[in-house]
Design brief:
Keywords: Flavoprotein, FMN, NAD, Oxidoreductase. It is an enzyme of class 1 (oxidoreductase). The protein is α/β, with parallel strands linked by helices. It is 38% helix and 20% strand. A 5-stranded parallel β-sheet has the order 2-1-3-6-7, with helices on both faces. Strand 6, helix 6 and strand 7 form a beta-alpha-beta unit.
Length: 224
Amino acid sequence: MTTLLHIDASVRAAKNDNPDHDSISKNIARRFIHTFREQQDIGEYIYRDVGVNPPSFITQEWIGAVFTPEHKKSAQQKHILLESDQFIAEVSKADIIVISSPMYNYGMPAQLKAWFDQVIRINKTFDFDLARGDFPLQPLLGGKTLIVITSTGEFGFEQGGIREHMSHLVPHLRSLSKYLGVTTIHEIASEYQEFADARHQQSLSNAYSQATELAQQLSNMAAE
């Protein structure tokens, strides 16, 4: 049975009194989840809306607790790390991770970055060994599939696009994904939101279609 971890990062709700304020990224993610569930039973579905319920920012005390050996951690330090421990446990058990996020100021929302900061943790999701030379960090998890669903107001952030040099959302997610244990990444993007023209409608329609098709594909693979 598949364990699916779903992380939404938009500060907007999926549905609002004014539909113009509905979160695009959340609704495309919903399409993926709904289609997957139609095709395949999900053994465990874990959902976190970090946009609405943001994780704690890490602090000096958090870092001190992380680098204190396990047998020497105080009760207070263990308490400080409870949130991080929970997030890491959810990532560890997931087979598929869905992350939906808008692009804010050409990067990821602060809330999503806070989630990653809680999850990417030494001796939990990666280890460190200087014997590896210039690349001492090594992921401890593996075998996971990541679906990245993004929404942007502008366009051309893809490789070779006119705004590739301004794209700090998906490239950042790709870099961090290996510390989630991701080996396969699928990307779905909706663009042109601020232009509100036919190009946006076409991009949005394409994103929904890709979400449906990918969910069907992955559910079929899970059933094999």
